[in-house]
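Support request from a user on the community tier.

User writes: "When I paste my structure tokens into the form, the page sometimes reloads and wipes my input. The last time it worked, I copied everything first. Here is what I submitted, just in case something in the input itself triggers the reload:"
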């Protein structure tokens, strides 16, 4: 089992910045991928940014150049720096972890609201 706890989020104006953090606990040695996902009501949850244990990152096209995902040493502490926010970034953001065997764990989510 892996537990994920998110922090950060909240309200920002367009052009502003927010930072999200995710702390993993439990069987963290089984994690090989950590990512930030977001979901708008009525839409599928989408991957925003992710990284693996080697630090290889991937980003959704919509956030490239604006968002940066990073790990603080090990993969069990991951942050998402969001700059130049747009109203379209408004969503519930979830931290997700993929573990060996294909299991997927989720945090509870944190609301990000960007006003125009």
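"...and here is what came back when it finally went through:"
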């Amino acid at each position: 089992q892996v537990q994920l706890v998110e922090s950060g989020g909240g309200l920002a104006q367009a052009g502003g910045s927010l930072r999200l953090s995710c702390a993993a606990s439990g069987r963290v040695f089984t994690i090989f991928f950590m990512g930030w996902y977001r979901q708008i009501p009525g839409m599928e949850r989408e991957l925003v940014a992710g990284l693996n244990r080697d630090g290889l990152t991937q980003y959704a096209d919509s956030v490239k150049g604006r968002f940066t995902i990073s790990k603080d040493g090990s993969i069990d502490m991951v942050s998402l720096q969001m700059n130049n926010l747009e109203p379209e970034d408004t969503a519930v953001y979830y931290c997700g972890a993929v573990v060996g065997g294909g299991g997927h764990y989720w945090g509870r989510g944190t609301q990000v609201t960007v006003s125009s």
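Agent notes: The reload is a front-end session timeout and is unrelated to the input. The two ends are 40 Å apart (CA to CA). The mean pLDDT is 96. Escalated to web team.
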